[in-house]
Amino acid sequence: MASLGVGLHLIRKRGAGRSAAVERRNLLTVCRFSVKTLLDRSCFETIDDSSPEFVNFVSILEHILSHRLKGQTTWFGYETPRSFWDYIKGACSKVPHNCIRSIESMENIRSSSAKGRAWIRVVLMEKRLSDYISSALRDFKTTRRFYEDGAIMLGEEAGLLADTLIGLNTIDFSFCLKGEGVDGSCPAVIDYTPYLKFTQSADSISSDEEEMRTMGSSGSESSTPDKMATAASIFTEQSNLVSKCKRFEQKYRMALEQKGYLEELVRLREAQLSEAVSHNKALQQSLADAHLSHTLEKEQLEYVILELQDQLKSFQSLEQLSADMSLSQTSLEPSHALSLEARPAGTHWPRQGKEETPSLRGLCGSLTSVASYKSLASLKSSECLASPATEVSSPGITPS
Questions:
Q1: Distance of alpha carbon 55 from alpha carbon 48, whole angstroms
Q2: Nearest alpha carbon to residue 189 among 64, 56, 66
Q3: 149-181 pLDDT, tens per residue?
Q4: DSSP readout, 41-96?
Q5: Among 68, 156, 298, 394, which residue is least crowded by beta carbons within 10 Å?
Q6: In Å, what is the CA distance from 333 to each residue of 274, 368, 393?
Q7: Interatomic CA distance for residues 293 and 295, integer angstroms
Q8: What three-state secondary structure class fits 344?
Q9: What is the pLDDT at residue 276?
């Protein structure tokens, strides 16, 4: 009996594990299909709360975020159900510029499930749903605290989920947060019919042909409803083809308009590029001219500086020469005057082939008096100009 009980327990455990794996795989596959249908629908119309593809996507996302979510334990030990909003509120609080506080402060949204649905719509309009999911998965401690073993958010498939949701960033969503879609009282139900595809095998096709033959061989009473059903199916197919043609035509027109817009944008950018190239050439030419003029001005300034240096040297040499001449003149004049004064009074000027005349004697006396006056003035004004090696003594003059 014990072995039988262990066997049943193992069978139940395997069955539970298989059912959990199938449930995870189904939800992730349907989520991927739902994202693709949203991308296809966004090419023709704006996605809002009235779009059935969006309603189905929100239901799938709620099931994924609520998969094996732990309940909240009260003070009395009872476990109450919990919404995925509690997990998002705790795991996404570190996301920069998050919208959690703004959703918590909304007055018309009270329940946790309604806040979770409002959060989905807000982050879709912000194009940040994948960023929030990735940030929540990085906080493994919080994720482990909110989910049980076998949950999608704890498995490796959660990373694939975040990568799948990146495609929704290309869609421009438009939602009203006061509508019926935000109401948390209605449960989320997934519609699997848009994603189901049934393929018949060869045996089933042959059996269908035999049934059609047997139905064709029956009476005219039974053939009339078949004709009506066939006509209805043909009409349905024609209407489907017409709607598909209209969709393709609308898509073609949109692509054509985008092509014209891109061509016009390319032409504008080419014109701007050519204008920028010409402007760049003009700037380069002006830069070269400025460099040339700067070089010429530099050479002229160097030539002027050299010329001024030469002139300065010549001026300095002239000043030195004039200073030497004035110094020699000042040093010669007192000695000459003193030699004239030291000459005895009875001496006469040497004769140069002619006799002295009274007029010449008077001129020599006047020159002697003038020379003596100049020597006295020069001795009184500057004693330093006289030669220190020669001591001059004249009768009637005492040195000061």
A1: 9
A2: 56
A3: 889 999 888 888 988 999 899 898 988 887 666
A4: HHTTS-B-TT-HHHHHHHHHHHHHHTTTBPPEE-TTS-EE---HHHHHHHHSTTST
A5: 156
A6: 88, 13, 16
A7: 5
A8: coil
A9: 92
